[in-house]
Amino acid sequence: MTTYYSKDHEWISVEGGTATVGITSYAQQQLGDVVYVETPEAGKSLSQGDEAAVVESVKAASEVYAPIDGEVTEGNEALADEPAKVNEDPEGAAWFWKMTVADEGQLADLMDEAAYKAYVDTL
Amino acid sequence: MADTSGTLQKTPLFDLHVELGARMVPFAGYEMPVQYPTGIMTEHQQTRDSAGLFDVSHMGQAILIGPDHETTARALEAMVPSNMVELGRGKQRYTVLLNAEGGVVDDLMVTRPVAEDQDGRLYLVVNASRKDVDYPLIAAGLPDTVRLEIVTDKALIAIQGPKAVDVVAAHAPAAADLAFMSGDFMEFDGIACHISRAGYTGEDGVEMSVPAGAAEAIARALLADERVKPIGLGARDSLRLEAGLCLYGHDLDETISPVEGNITFCMQKRRRDEGGFPGADRIQAELKDGPGRLRVGLKLEGRAPAREGAAIHLPGGAAVGTVTSGGFAPTVGGPIAMGYVATEHAKTGTKLSLLVRGKELPAEVVDMPFVPNRYHRKPNS
To answer: Which of B32, B76, B194, B283 has the smallest count of CB within 10 Å of its CB?
Structure first.
């Protein structure tokens, strides 16, 4: 399993032909208390950069973008009832959706963990 | 609201906010704490359960100074629709500055001092974002015998919550005797302050006007009490929304009258009958015939919040208004909003839809406040 990171603060873990996507710990810290999450439904086709999910804190609503092209295979429905999970375990249980990897080449444009850490340090 | 064009001002508590780990953001020309490390939900609950300390020093403090109360009160009455002449000594009143069309230029608090040697003075607290509009407008409207003095050497600290007055009274015992919406000069650990029993959270509490140079020492003395935690603008907003209170620039603006804004409690009978304030024709007509639109509270059925700007529709039908404030309400435990709707759809219980990301979120018109007020009201005050 390899995990990549986007500049929009999504993480994407790829194993076999399937990717799991969520938001990073840095992102949840910036958002503050998460009160609402809307994840995509299975079957939805996504292109890199599409608005795929919504995460709302007490303060504001933010979009979560698709880091790569592919088709959603599962949305994490548990987040609808327990949005605070995004604050507690953003890079684990609070994944947002699973999707196919349509173009592995797109993963090369994303950051690895070290590069993402360095990127966050510049913010 | 946020002014990013020039240099941001700092309140006397800036260094303390940074030391406490606040996230600072631009707000109305100031660098203000939006939240501390524990986050908005915890800060919100802290204020509802115990006590929270809010730096509201960015707000404008000013004094109207005239020869006697009647003269000063009449001068102010020419600009606002409230009864200022019969405001008792030490009493405080919420009112609005009006433009010639009866629109709200700002909402503000007015306090008449207790002391007889202060007769002829009225203390004003206005919104930070409206100082530059309010002060010239007020100054231009005053007779020669009354002048406006802008206070620049005071900070403003609010302590809000069920334990707020106990906490403050440990340093300023006289604060415990204040009735809701009244205030007086008193010492806080030997420092001369003005303390009033008011606030903007729906909870009991006080607002303290304190010397800028002593503000940090006073804030530290209050925060040393384990019942108190610092609260940022984020929770201030969720608290006031639950309390059904307007935020200027969002729920009130220069096109909205106090009747449309559903704040006619600030207009006492004599003023309603006599008029004599800017825009009286429109406001008196709206009082008589009802306004075309009305500010209402909205409770959403689902979990998704609706934010400012969301269109309000009849379910599956036409647009009837717009959300002006909305978000997740921690004490309610779900999303709430306030907004303006055509008056025929403003009745409590009316089912409406709020349009968010192209979806209709079902909502219902509800009475405000969303969370019961817990102001301190004495039986004989």
So the answer is: B194
